[in-house]
Structures are given as C-alpha cells and as structure tokens.
Amino acid sequence: MSSKITIIGAGNVGATIAYALTLREAAAEVVLIDINKDKADGEAMDISQGAAFISSTIVRSGDYVDAFGSNLVIITSGMGRKPGMTRLDLAATNTEILMQIIPNITKYAPDAIYLIVSNPVDILTYVFTKYSDIPSEHIIGSGTILDSARLHEYLAAHYKVNPTNINAHVLGEHGDTSFIPWSCINIANVPAADYNNYLLNGNHRFTPVDKDDAISYVRDSGSYIIKRKGATFYAVSALLCYLSQAVQSDQVTAQDLSTVLHGEYGISDVALSLPTLVGNRGVVNKILLPLAEDELAALHASADKLKETIKSLNL
After folding, report:
1. Catalytic residue among 138, 152, 169, 174
2. Closest by alpha carbon to 143, among 276, 52, 309, 50?
3. What pTM, to 2 d.p., does this model score?
C-alpha cells in the first residue's frame, strides 16, 4: 500500500485508528496531527515502536503541512461526549473547532478524501461540505456505520447466526433520531418478518424481535460504554480502518454513511446516513431503499431535527 493517511486529532479515537491502520498496513505512512503536539508525538512514537516487528507502516506526528500528498484525511478532533450528553450537545463547540481546521488542512491536502468522525458527525459533515472547496463526493461522514454494526450484532445474537448473514441498516442521524427500516431487513437472504416460515425444522423457531429494545440498544450503546469506561474508541476505530481501506480500493463497498443530501427522498441541505457506495473516488452512488411510509416519515423527522440544530448554530 503506497498511500498516505493523515489523522487530525490524537485522542482516544484518533490514536486507536492510527494503531489499527498500522497493524493492518492500510497505508505506507500515517501522520498524526493534534493541537497538543506532545500528545501526537507521544502517540506516534508509541505506535511506531510497538509495530516495529509486524508492520512496515511509518507513523509520525506532524503539522498541517505534513498532510501534503495525503490520499485520505480522517478528522477526529473535538470535545468528546461526557456521561449524560447527546451528540448534538457537542454541536457548537465542535463546529467551531472544525471551522478552524478546514482552511488549514484543505490547503495542503486538496485532493484527499475526507472521513469525518467527530461528533455530531452529521452536523460536521454538513459544515465541512458547506464551508470547504473539497468536492462533496470526497467528504464522507462515518454516520451510522457503527449503529448498523451494533444492529448486526444484536440481530445475530437473536437469530443465532453469523453477523455476515444479516442484511440490516440504521439510517438517519447518528444519534437519538436514528431508525431501523425493518421492512428492508433480511436474514440469510430471507425477509426477517418471514424468517420462521422458511426454516425446515419446525421446532427451531425464533420469537419476534423486540423492535423497541433493538433501537434502544443501537442508540444507547455509546452512552452505556461512556458511562462505564469514559469513551468509545475500539469499535469505531475498527470500522474506520475497514472504511479507510475501502476508499483506497478499486472495489466499491456499500455502507451506511453520512453525506449531504440533494433531493433524495425529498430531503436536501442536510447530511444524514443512507446506504452509500464508496470507493477510491469517494462517494460513487447512493442506494435508495424502498422505505415504508412510517420509515420515510422517520427519515424526514431525523432530517428536521438535524436542520434545527444547524439553524441554531447561526453559521
């Protein structure tokens, strides 16, 4: 892999992404940038020394100028959630931080694909798209990719199958207005609602999924983890490592990611998550699922909540 990845933010998430990328040799070079230069330097040195015998990836700290030539820039900077906070509570502070980052990083990495990870990710993806000169197809928010992974885990445990046998999505905001389009969920290529009808063994049946419990698990997992260990970073780092490799690959992958909408489902001028095809050209296309009427209403409610937050920022 001859690529260069710059990570802005050397906190728990940024450093763990750098570590995961190094172990997977997902780039030839990883540059860590942080306002706290000592923190970035220490994290880079620790990762580099620990990976010396298992990876050829060069890991170093640097300034914005060191992002020159990056194929990919991952933004994790900002204040993290504290117990009891929602992601939208971070909007004003982290938007201000992002607005300071945008001109500095885009000056040196104008051709990179940008992955926005900081929360509230949908708001920050919108802000980055609106206030940078980077093509919109090169700006991708991590969105509900983690929520969908949590849903896969939940359903796999319920149906006692491997998560790869689950086809399910969480759409909308990465937050409290996210929703599950149950009409589109398949288990081993069979609609979840009809799964029992296709099982040969009549004694091997499953109770219906508790939909309220499922969406609560998806929405509240982050808060649950933060309350117990102070932050979430392993799962999102693993997924961002996977996504980083995907956007550097010739192959296109479909994931639930946040991008600015331009009329999809009648929604515009807001970023939220839909199934999105991404590859080494960034966003290639979006998949418009055949949403049921109540699911479409939930998507619009999510968009309205995000627009309300954007309006409150007085950008």
Report:
1. 174
2. 276
3. 0.94
